[in-house]
Each structure stands twice: as structure tokens, then as C-alpha cells.
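Submission checklist for the structure archive. All mandatory fields must be present; incomplete records are returned to the submitter.

[x] Identifier: Cytidine deaminase
[x] Organism: Aquitalea magnusonii
[x] Residue count: 144
[x] Sequence attached
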Amino acid sequence: MAQHTPSPAQWAELEAAARLAARHAYVPYSRFAVGAAILDEQDRIHPGCNVENASYGLGNCAERTAIFSARALHGLQQVIAVCIYTPTATPTSPCGACRQVLNEFGPHLLVRSICDGPDRIDTTLDQLLPHAFGPQNLTDAAAS
């Protein structure tokens, strides 16, 4: 499936949305604010932030917040790109759970991680999550 690449202007919008979303993070326990912004198949940008909970396992990461909100509010079908911002000196890659959820909506999506330092990570989800389990596996099983 051919996928378009975000323009430099779209990347700039994604980066700004991720930085802004991090300012809304609810992180009273870790103090590790994360913001994410996804670009969908209709060129809409959806932000998300991490939200912690006193019962630690019930918190939600920024990437998943963006995906779940976009699906609930706009019927998200496909993610083209995600930008993840952390207020750190070096960029941070998405956690395993987020990689799995992102895979559901964009197994080949572009991933950019940015920070307060000069470095960034530019990669693809299939490089971060090789041999991923996803919807295609269920389709293959049903066809058998």
C-alpha cells in the first residue's frame, strides 16, 4: 500500500502539537511528561499526552491517548506518522505497548521522536516492531 510522506510543514505541525500536548500531561508520580501527535490518512493531526494513575498500571501513554481519542472522535482508520516529544536531552522511543497499538493503525507508519536537545530519531514502526502481530495475522488465520 502506497503511503504519503508528511511534508516539512506537516512535520512542523506534528512537532508543535506533540510539544503542546506534553504540557497537558498528568504525571504526578513519574514527572515524565510525554506528548504525541499522529497524522491520519485524511491529513488531520490528533494530539495526546500521558495520563498517570495512583494505580500505576492504569496510566496511559501519550501515543495511545492520541490513537484512542482519534478513533473515538473521528473514526481513525490509518496513521501515517507519529511524533513523540519528551522534555529530555535525548529523544525517547515509544514503549512496547504503544508500538503494538500504533501497529494496529499503521504498521509502516513513520516515527519521529524529538526532545529538548538537538537529536531526534526518525524511523518506521516496522523497524521498531519487526515481525509484529496485527490484524493481518487474524485474517490469515480466518482464511485457513
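[x] Structure attached
Curator remark: The chain is about 35% helix and 20% strand. Strands lie at 35-40, 45-49, 79-85, 110-114, 121-124.
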